[in-house]
Design brief:
CATH topology of the largest domain: Quinone Oxidoreductase, Chain A, domain 1
Order of helices and strands: EEEHEEEEEEEHEHEHEHEHEHEHEHE
Radius of gyration: 20 Å
Shape: globular
Helix content: 10-25%
Distance between the termini: 46 Å
Number of helices: 9
CATH superfamily of the largest domain: Medium-chain alcohol dehydrogenases, catalytic domain
Length: 334
Amino acid sequence: MKSKAIVFTGVRQIELREVTLKPLSSTDVLVETWWSSISTGTEKMAFNGLIPSPPFIYPFIPGYETVGKITEVGAHVNRELIGRYAYIAGSFGYEGVNAAFGGASQFVACPVESLTVLEGIENPQCGIALPLGATALHIVDLAAVKGKKVLVLGQGAVGLLAAELAKLMGAALVAATEPSQNRLRHSPADIRINPDTEDVMAALAGHEFDVLIDSTGIMSAIDTGLRFLKFHGQVIFGGYYQRMNIDYSQAFQKELSFIAAKQWAKGDLERVRKLIAEGRLNTEKIFTHHHPVDDAITDAYMQAFNDPDCMKMILTWKKEAEEGGTPCHTAPKP
C-alpha cells in the first residue's frame, strides 16, 4: 500500500513523498491519520543532524504524536475498533525508508497494542497531547511532588503540563520561569517569572524548593535554579540533552539528587487520556498553531522550530481535520 509521508532526507532537508507500507500482520491495524504534530525537541535535533544514531538514519519518517481513525484490522484484532479514533506513537511498518518514529504518514500500520483508543475525548485532536502529557506525568511521578515546593524551568508544552500536573498531584507550591510572555500567561503556576524582564533571584528570594524540573535544556537557567533548591533537593531533567555542563558546587554543597526522565512509563498514556476525558487536565492551550500537510510543509517545521510563540504545531492531514473542534473533554470539571 502507498502512503504520503513526511521524510527527513538529510540534514535540514524535508520532503513530502510517497512511501510503501508493509502488509498488515494478523495483530496490526491500519490507521488513517487526521492529525500529527511536530516535536521541537527530538525532531529538531534530528533535523539538524545532532542524533546520528538509529533510528535517526536518513532517510526517515519522523513523528510520535499522531491521531487518526482505524480503517482496517488484522485477522486477530477486534473488528469493533474500525471507525474509532486512536493515538499512535508511530510505526516501523515501512519499506525502503527508516522510521523515527514513523507517525508522520497519511496511513500508518502498527501493532494493536501500541494504540490508545480515545475513549471519552469528544474532540479526538486532543489525543495529540497524550505523549506530552504522559511525559510530563512521568516527570511529576519521579519527583513525587505531593506536599513539596516545585520549581519548573520553561513553560513550553511539557513544562506547562508538568506545572499543571504537579498542582493536580498535590504540590504545595509551583513556581515557573519562562522568557516568552505569551507562554507564561498560559502557565498554571502559583508564581510565574519572566527571566528576561524580572530578576529571578529577587522574585524567588526566601523560597527553598524541594524539586527542580527542567524543560529548557539551558544550562545557565539550571544553574540559577539550583541555587533555590534545599539541602537534599532533587533535580529532574525533563528533556533530551547532548551534554550537561552545570555548576557542580551547588550539587556538592547541597547533596542534590539528579534523575533523567526518559519518556513515559507503562500506563501513563491511559492515565492522561482519563484526565483529559474527565476535564481535569487542560491540554487545549498548548495547541497554538495549525498547518495543512502540503508542499509548504518545510515552512511548518521552520515555524515550529524557531517561533517561540509556537508551543505546538498541529499538522492536518485531511480537509475535515482543519475544521474547529469541540473542547477535549465531555465531563464537567469537578
